[in-house]
Amino acid sequence: MNKDNDPKIDVLRVTPTDAIYDFTCMNDSIGTLWSYKIINTGKEAIDSLKFTLIQSNNKINAINPNNLRFLSLIPISSIQISKNGLISGVDTVTIQRLYSLCTDIVPDALHRMDVSLTDFLKTDTLYISFRTVRCSSGDTALFNVNKNYNQWSFDSLEVFSPCGVNNLVTTTTGLMTGTTLSVGKLLV
After folding, report:
1. Would you say residue 3 lies in a domain?
2. Each residue's pLDDT tens digit, 71-105
3. Is the pLDDT of residue 181 over 50?
4. Inter-CA distances, 118 with 9, 27, 103, Å
C-alpha cells in the first residue's frame, strides 16, 4: 500500500431519493425506509471502517438514551446490514432505549448501534437500511416542551488503512459536512 494513499469512503443515500426528512403520518408503523450504501472510494483496501448509527445527532442529548423528546424512533428490528464483495466481518453492538414513548408501535427503539467492518476492498460495498417512525403521544412529559423529529445520524465515521493511517470522514455525497454526518434535522 502506498503510504501516501489515505483511505476514503463515500456514503450514498439510495432511498428515499428526494427527502431528507421523515414526513410520514404520526404513529404510522411503516414509517420511512432509509437505505444507504457505503463504498470504498480510495485507491486501495481499507483495513477497517467504524461508525455509529445514533438516534440523536445532538451530542449533549446523545448521552441520555432515554430522552423522551426525541420522537423519531428507529426500530432495531428494521435495521438490515448486508455486504457485497469480500468484506470479511461486520460486527455490531446495539444499545436499545430503555424508555421511549410509542412502545406499542416500536417496542425496540434504538439508542445507538456501533458498526465495525474489516477488509474493505476497493470493489466492496456495505449496505445499511432502517426505518424511522414518527411517534406522537399524549404523555405529560411532552407538555410545553419542544418535540424533536428527524434526529439521527451516522456519527464518527473512521477508516483505517493496513498501514495504520486513519481518517475521520468529514464529507460524503448527499449528507451534511462535519464530524457528525446528520441525515435528519431538528424540527420543532
Report:
1. no
2. 788 999 999 999 887 777 899 999 998 878 888 89
3. no
4. 14, 37, 35
Close Cβ partners of 53 (under 8 Å, ≥ 6 residues apart): 74, 79, 110, 112, 113, 115, 128, 130, 152, 153, 154, 155
Closest-CA residue to 53 (of 98, 108, 115): 115
CATH number of the structural domain spanning residue 155: 2.60.40
Cell numbers representing residue 185 in the block: 434535522
For residue 50, give the nearest of 89, 24, 5 by alpha carbon. Answer: 89
Q: Is 184 within the bounds of a domain?
A: no
Report the domain count for the chain: 1
Q: Which residue in the block uniquely carries the three cell numbers 468484506? A: 87
Tens digit of each residue's pLDDT (9 = 90 or more) over 122-145: 878 999 999 988 888 776 666 676
Q: Answer whether 65's CB lies under 8 Å from 98's CB.
A: yes
Domain limits at 106? 9-171
Up-side HSE of residue 167: CA atoms within 13 Å toward CB? 19
pLDDT for position 176: 39
Rounded to two decimals, the pTM is 0.79
Would you put residue 160 in left (φ > 0), alpha (ψ -120 to 50) or beta?
beta
